[in-house]
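Dear colleague,

Thank you for sharing your sequence with our group. We've completed the structure prediction you requested, and as agreed, I am returning the results in plain text so they can be pasted directly into your records. Please verify that the sequence below matches your submission; if there's any discrepancy, let me know and we will rerun it promptly.
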Amino acid sequence: MAEQQLSSPVEQPDRGGSFLFLPVGARPFMRPEKFSEEQRRFWKTGDDFLRSVNRIFEGTNEINRLLIPGMIFKRAMKGAMPLWKAMAALDAETSFPSPVGRLAPERRGAEMAKRELLFAARCAASLGPSLEKRQEVLAALADCASEVYAMDSMLGRTLAAGDRPALRDALCRFFCMESRERAYDRARTALCAVLPPEALDEQLERLARLHRYTAVNSSEVREQIVPALLEAEGCPLAY
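Please find the predicted structure tokens below.
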């Protein structure tokens, strides 16, 4: 059977935010650099020194995190990102095709998590300009977007890598299992913060339909991962 992919809700965007609109594996990735042992030792020494210095930037990082949804909305308003069209497509979708092949459940889960983020963002957009003052909503959307981006990247890199596919698949399955739950939780938090009580139950039910999936056997996946970690005494993969 030929491998199928979930179709993108909209055409490929020309600028940033492509992880939201392109199918898993369609986004280009930077090639990881290769480091010598000497470079790694130097890197560790510098990392130990910078760890304390980086605490200064923690507050800045938190502020930058809250800017993620704001930047998405601003790009959409300028026409640089087809966000509104993707949101409108949610109502037009009556079925969600299941991909087949390698990591099919995880690929479908990542695509559905993108739709959860779009659904939560559409509800949050109903606040209008006052959204920028609702930090708890912005934080929830930012966390959800981060999880979706991480799943998309993890799946794309895993499918593109050629070495140790069984181990890579197990790591990817375990990560996506936990990341999907975190994304759903943050999308649900955003809905609860913006919707009136009389509309909340219906919208939460719609969000739950996007989240419906068969959970991974976490014990089985751990049994594939742990021996490799113990043998390598750390991360068993170069990247």
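Summary note from our side: The CA atoms of residues 115 and 146 lie 14 Å apart.

Kind regards,
the structure core
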